[in-house]
Specification:
- It is built from 13 helices and 13 strands.
- It is an alpha/beta fold.
- The chain folds into two domains: 143 residues, Aspartate Aminotransferase, domain 1, CATH 3.90.1150.10; 222 residues, Aspartate Aminotransferase, domain 2, CATH 3.40.640.10.
- Helix 2 runs parallel beside helix 12, helix 3 crosses helix 10 and helix 11 runs parallel beside helix 13.
- The radius of gyration is 21 Å and the shape is globular.
- The chain starts with a helix and ends with a helix.
- The structure holds pyridoxal-5'-phosphate.
- The site of pyridoxal-5'-phosphate has 13 residues, from helix 5.
Length: 388
């Protein structure tokens, strides 16, 4: 072991990234893999957004912005949150971050003290675990179940509240399940948060991707919730902008003022050119987004009955672009299922264990390929699982 590795600060806990690395390395060495693994849209960023970035380069926008972001972008984000979700934030209550990812870290740096317990909708985007642990906190998974289409049950949250519980991470729609927590449950969660004096982190990165009749409700719009909620969102998913690294957090202005210096320490500001691209995303035509959403809806509508026909069950996803599929009928545990599926058929999906699931019955299928490729992948998955 190197000297540096032997002197790691105790906040660095060993995370097992070996499986993901192995899958990605394996896929890189194989021709024509159908990748339904990562949560990265197959669409390119809409061309008017790319053009705005090129224009920003040509206009010499090559410099730092303020740590909280371009004023025009913060204003546009505040207006968009109001129009899309009825959220009331001023421009000075927005921090533009390097993806929602940096927003997660910044939120935990701001709110999570050593020993704090953080309840997290599960299975989950495990960045939350890492961010909480880096701050000395303790992630506490709140399970959701296939029988409920993986919707949150407020009783499961309440059962896990202790005197150390500091906050609840509400991700709706959720990754990896696509589950949308219905408005009635969101109201019950708000009541619970107020009753137990919990803070809420509302991760709404998939909130534009909701399939009828499901509905999204932003918890910070409910009475008494704005003051105890950090709302996280970003451009990666809605605008197919994963590589541009633009996200944001929205929270009361005095909290924003307190996290501005830590944000400056993390990366000073989000890439200036990307911020101009994000501004064009919000202020430009929305038709490309509508088209992408329509394509996701079509893929989802095809995939659900195809999975059923192939003998799989799943939680009906109300949003996002994932189907959390039960592969127990194959007789294989999910990690082995995924590794062999990739090696033997060239289809990449991820096991639920990569999302903190203690069950080995599930895989996450991202429907982020054109429909003909999804059809081909589905045929290979069915044949692999059941020899059908
Ligand atoms: C629930 C959730 N939050 C946050 C992120 C981070 O997104 P980004 O940093 O690209 O904005 C992701 C990415 O997959 C996610 O699934």
């Amino acid at each position: 072991m190197s000297l540096l590795a032997s002197r790691l600060a105790p906040r660095i806990v060993e995370e097992d990234g070996a499986f993901r690395t192995r899958m990605l390395a394996l896929a890189a060495g194989m021709p024509n893999v159908i990748a339904l693994g990562r949560g990265d849209p197959d669409f390119h960023t809409p061309s008017h957004i790319v053009a705005a970035a090129k224009a920003a380069i040509d206009a010499n926008h090559h410099h730092y912005t303020g740590p909280t972001g371009l004023p025009a972008l913060r204003t546009a984000i505040a207006a968009d949150l109001k129009a899309a979700h009825g959220l009331d934030y001023g421009a000075d209550e927005i921090v533009v971050t390097a993806g929602a990812q940096e927003g997660i870290m910044l939120t935990m740096l701001g709110l999570c003290a050593p020993g704090d317990e953080v309840l997290i909708t599960s299975p989950r985007f495990t960045t939350y675990d890492t961010a909480v642990r880096l701050c000395g906190g303790v992630p506490v998974p709140v399970p959701t179940y296939e029988k409920d289409d993986f919707a949150l049950d407020v009783a499961e949250i309440e059962r896990r509240v202790t005197p150390r519980t500091r906050m609840f991470v509400l991700t709706s729609p959720n990754n990896p399940t696509g589950a949308v927590t219905p408005p009635a449950a969101i109201r019950a969660i708000a009541d619970l948060a107020i009753r137990y004096d919990l803070l809420v982190v509302a991760d709404e990165i998939y909130a534009r991707m909701i399939y009828a009749p499901n509905a999204h409700l932003s918890i910070a719009t409910l009475p008494g919730m704005r003051e105890r909620t950090v709302t996280l969102n970003g451009f990666s998913k809605t605008y197919a902008m994963t590589g541009w690294r633009v996200g944001y957090l929205a929270a009361p202005g005095d909290f924003v003022a307190q996290v501005t210096e830590p944000r400056h320490t993390l990366s000073i500001n989000t890439c200036t050119i990307s911020q101009y691209a994000a501004l064009a995303a919000l202020t430009g035509p929305q038709e490309p987004v509508q088209q992408m959403l329509a394509d996701y809806a079509e893929r989802r509508a095809w995939l659900m009955p195809a999975l059923t026909a192939a003998g799989f069950t799943y939680g009906h996803p109300g949003g996002a672009f994932y189907i959390y599929t039960n592969i127990s009928s194959s007789g294989l545990p999910a990690p082995e299922f995924c590794e062999r599926l990739l090696r033997e058929t060239g289809v990449m999906v991820f096991p639920g264990t990569m999302f903190g699931d203690t069950s080995t019955d599930y895989i996450r299928i991202s429907y982020l390929q054109p429909l003909p490729l999804i059809r081909e992948a589905m045929a290979r998955i069915a044949e692999f699982a059941h020899g059908a």
